[in-house]
């Protein structure tokens, strides 16, 4: 290998370029003495404290210029935004204001200290300290003056502070350091400082965004502050990342109810549609939220209950305060905004849209802007299939239609609005349910008139008024069995007086509708009861099985003490359901439990002394332990009824499975599930895992065998 020669530049070349005559020494030489270095923290502290006073930070009484109101001009500028008059009412500074502010600043010890600091550490070091201190004080001013304060025209206040206090004071300090009066701060520099202040305000609003959205109605002006901040992908990404983390920490956890999460989701939709009409930011911050809502079991139930709620609209169009557990604002939103409200086509093929804009650069690859950005459209697209909403809508609508209401205008209105979004075919079952209830009134009037039930009811009412005897007035709703959701039947024996009315009504109905036959669902509906006790009268609507239990206490005074077991045998009702009814009547102070025997109850004819005799639906708004126990017992009875219905259906599925495997031979689990979904009326309601457990039970009982590949077949005898 040959030697490598390294070429080194000659010193004469450098000296020829940088001649000693072209290098000028600094005007103020840097001193590196230890004493000078040690006083820098003290200088910075003193500079900070004196600038805080001159910039009006932490002083709510600070005003710029003269502290007086000029006629037809307005009031002075206050550095604290909450103390300042509205932007349209504080005046622009006059020459007298500038002179007063300059005189006030001249009294500060800052100007004397600047000369001392310049001598001690040099002008350059002081300027660097000044830049660091002013940078921190700008953030400190924004946080102090604007945190938690949301008013219109905030940026006019911030621009005033930057231009007339921050920029002017900076120029005066630079003039003092350079001992010159020709230091010029350009408009570009002032504009840069205003942008810096806007960024600090935006960062503050991002930190407050969760509280802003929670109290959306009172904090709407804060969204305008964020609009000025989110002008580039970096700030938009910072906002969405910070807010998504805040949602994950503060909202998406088991401690927050589904109603609270949906209420905040609605506020997020409204606020982010104002912040970013394109919907990119909304799409980015709500992905985890929507995924979490899909995982909650009661999300669909809460949404449907809100859509069907009886809302009262205020003058501003919002929902009046109501039940905090119901999203009543959804009903107002549904009636206010329809699917045709957002009719702007933002697609690539709308050549006539002269306001079309491309998707933002920070849009996700799978971003698709919905044409319907209203609240209802966002909620009903939570799930991929609308079948979930339609099924829950049928269940909730059934509960409402079976109540004793004078009209169903709310339900009709909701269905008409939902037809636009779901289509008429999807809501056909709901239409049949509503038509059944409306037609039932006509049929009920005809049957009662033909059977003379109205006359009998009037006579019975007259007799009751004279002798205090019992009378029954029966009204029915005729339901189309195939179009209504399945209802668990908790069988019990109805009183004879009711049974006779049902037989008479059934005869009248079959005469009117000769091709149809009635099947009575005694556990569904309401019974309006009026109980006359010695010292009070109770009037309310209760469930049929609750009325049957209290009716069983009719009799002489010495026969009114009954046990749960006796009532269960007499009424052919489950003990759990009887106990639930008794606890319900205890909560209403109609029955009382015997102290010497468990599950034994008697009629409380007179209330003890000192107990309020006024009986109403909610015990004066104070739920007691008996009412809570009644609800718990009723829930337990409902679960038992569902379990009994499940067992009865399982017996039917047992026959289906045996018949299929006998006729078509062995089948694997997925095919059995598919066949059951076809042949079972209403569809097979259980998952493959539940079906696997059911088939395992049949194998254990010796009904089925498991063949090769996990296929099931009928066991050979």
TrEMBL record:
SMART domains per UniProt: APC2, CULLIN
MF-aspect GO terms: ubiquitin protein ligase binding
GO biological process, one term: ubiquitin-dependent protein catabolic process
An example Gene Ontology CC term for this record: anaphase-promoting complex
Alphabetized UniProt keyword annotations: Cell cycle, Cell division, Mitosis, Ubl conjugation pathway
Gene3D superfamilies in alphabetical order: Cullin Repeats (1.20.1310.10), Cullin, Chain C, Domain 2 (3.30.230.130), Winged helix-like DNA-binding domain superfamily/Winged helix DNA-binding domain (1.10.10.10)
All residue ranges annotated as the Cullin family profile domain in the record: 379-586
Superkingdom field: Eukaryota
Record InterPro entries: ANAPC2, ANAPC2_C, Cullin-like_AB, Cullin_homology, Cullin_homology_sf, TPR_ANAPC2, WH-like_DNA-bd_sf, WH_DNA-bd_sf
Keyword Cell division: yes
Family that this chain belongs to: Belongs to the cullin family.
Protein name as annotated: Anaphase-promoting complex subunit 2
Species: Exophiala viscosa
